[in-house]
Amino acid sequence: MSVFRGSNVNHPADADGEWSGDPFDGPTERLYDPERVVLTPVPVRGKGVGFALIASVIALSVAVGAGLIAWHALGAANAVGGPISSAPMPELGPSDEYAGESMRLQAGCATAMFLDLDEPRANVAQPAGDLRYDSKCGKDVPSFSLGPGAQGGSQVTGPDVDAPGCDQAIRTSPLGPGASVPAKTGATLCVLTAGAQPHMALVEITDVTRDGTVTLSATSWSVPGR
Predict the structure, then answer these.
(1) How distant, in Å, are the alpha carbons of 6, 71, 192 from that of 39?
(2) Any residues with CB less than 8 A from the CB of 190 and at least 6 apart, and which?
(3) pLDDT band, very low/low/confident/very high, at 169 (cuts 50, 70, 90)
(4) Are strands 181-182 and 98-105 parallel, antiparallel or unpaired?
């Protein structure tokens, strides 16, 4: 055990002022006291800490990557005009629908022509006709009305109507018996066909010539369960 001499020990001096006696005599003190020493444990970085650090780095990388993907997706959506939303539509059958089908109707003076909107097809027999076209003579304007093959119909304001919109129009503002719609460019009709597989058809008149020839654009959705 190491000791040192206390610095406050009084030593007698001789006549010349020199210290006398044993300079090492006097009380001693411990350099340290084992009971007073407090050992602080030093944390040891083991494998668990290393794995936790690596997992944190990986999680941060994944979060940054997901953010970049979402940012690019948002940019792509904005590039094409932003998010697209539409009203729910009836389920489409595998081969029972069509879009933008063009038909050209040319009939003699004061005659009628029937259209089957399930296919679509023009100039069909009357019982299969969902829409009836009546040509006129002179200054009378040709017109359209519902045929015997239709369950119902309605005139709507424009071609930007989907199947649910047509269904609502037929329920709330239907064409009654004997009602007709003048064949003018821009006029639009919704027609619900009958049969084992009914269809909802949207018919727009795109052109009418002086001789009464009418061009139509038709879109159809199959309506299962009706």
Answers:
(1) 27, 54, 91
(2) 153, 154, 155, 156, 161, 165, 166, 167, 169, 170, 200, 201, 202, 203
(3) very high
(4) unpaired
Q: Band of the pLDDT at 161, cuts 50, 70, 90?
A: very high
The gap from C-alpha 49 to its chain's centroid, in whole angstroms, comes to 42
pLDDT of 164 above 60: yes
Cβ burial 160-182 (10 Å sphere, 16+ → b, else e): ebbbebbbebbeeebbeeeeebe
Question: What confidence tens digit (pLDDT) does each residue in 79-121 have?
Answer: 443 333 334 444 444 345 899 999 999 998 899 999 999 989 9
Enumerate residues 6+ apart whose C-beta is below 8 A from 96: 118, 197, 199, 220, 222
Q: CA–CA separation, 87 vs 78, rounded Å? A: 20
